[in-house]
From TrEMBL:
The keyword Metal-binding does not apply. Gene3D superfamilies: Terminase, small subunit, N-terminal DNA-binding domain, HTH motif. This is Prophage terminase small subunit. It comes from Companilactobacillus nantensis DSM 16982. Transmembrane segments: none annotated. GO terms for biological process: chromosome organization. InterPro entries: ATPase_terminase-su_N, SPP1-like_terminase, Terminase_Gp1_N_sf, Terminase_ssu.
Length: 259
């Protein structure tokens, strides 16, 4: 199997760029190039409110899969994709590159395969033993949503344009010089520079690209409730939580149209 395919499995399970680069003896830029070229994307952003410990989870699961000689490479990929969203149709589509209609049938059939089913059960048990859920994880995710801005996702350039009327005539100032206006071109930052967990929705509207971040106010309300909960139990603890999140670079809701 190609290195990038093996590396994708590690990436999907949370391994960092530098760890993947070290494991496959390539540069970090090569790993980022693989991610961009082959469209690597971890599970839906909303599911990232629960963090795993990559160095503990990924190697164990990859070793578990590699040791299983009862599964084909595509079946192993199916197991990994299924664990991300627990959707057999989507997992089959990504692993086999099949159509939706085929995947809807074959996904369920693949999931019922005794060897695949046994492997998924073992991997789920492994994940359950290695996933750590803490209030700190939840607080940090809400903080990301509360303090993010469109500047984390979008960039822009400003250029000058000559002002014309509806007939294409150039407007002139009192000294007969063309009148100019400043126009901003708004565009997405490079994919590998965007924290996609900040993005709730992205689509192309009639006027261009629309990017929507998570609701800042809802995130702030959730943070306030968490802080109040801790204050009821321990005033010092609540203060510490708020101190911790103030230093983080975090997220909110907004939408922006790219002209």
């Amino acid at each position: 199997m190609d290195k990038w395919k093996e590396a994708e499995k590690d990436y999907l399970l949370g391994m960092k760029y530098k760890d993947i680069a070290s494991k496959y003896e390539v540069s970090i830029n090569t790993v980022k190039s693989w991610k961009s070229r082959h469209g690597w994307q971890r599970g839906a952003p909303i599911k990232k409110s629960v963090h795993t410990k990559p160095k503990k989870v990924a190697p164990k699961i990859i070793d578990e899969l590699e040791a299983n000689d009862k599964l084909t490479e595509k079946q192993k990929s199916f197991c990994l994709f299924y664990l991300q969203q627990f959707n057999a149709t989507q997992a089959y589509q990504r692993a086999y590159g099949a159509s939706y209609e085929t995947s809807r049938v074959e996904g369920s059939r693949n999931l019922a395969n005794p060897n695949v089913k046994e492997q998924i059960t073992r991997l789920k048990n492994q994940l359950h033993s290695d996933i750590y859920i803490s209030v700190d994880d939840v607080v940090k995710e809400y903080a990301k949503q509360a303090f993010a801005s469109l500047g984390d996702v979008l960039d822009y350039k400003v250029h000058k344009e000559i002002v014309m009327d509806n007939d294409g005539n150039v407007f002139l100032d009192t000294e007969d010089n063309p009148v100019e206006k400043h126009v901003a071109d708004i565009y997405l930052k490079p994919s590998d520079q965007i924290d996609w967990s900040l993005v709730q929705e992205i689509h192309r509207g009639k006027d261009g690209l629309v990017v929507k971040l998570y609701d800042k106010q809802k995130a702030l309300d959730s943070l306030t409730k968490l802080a109040d909960t801790f204050k009821d139990k321990d005033d010092n603890n609540a203060v510490q939580i708020l101190d911790d999140i103030e230093g983080d670079d975090e997220d909110g809701t907004a939408s922006k149209t790219q002209e």
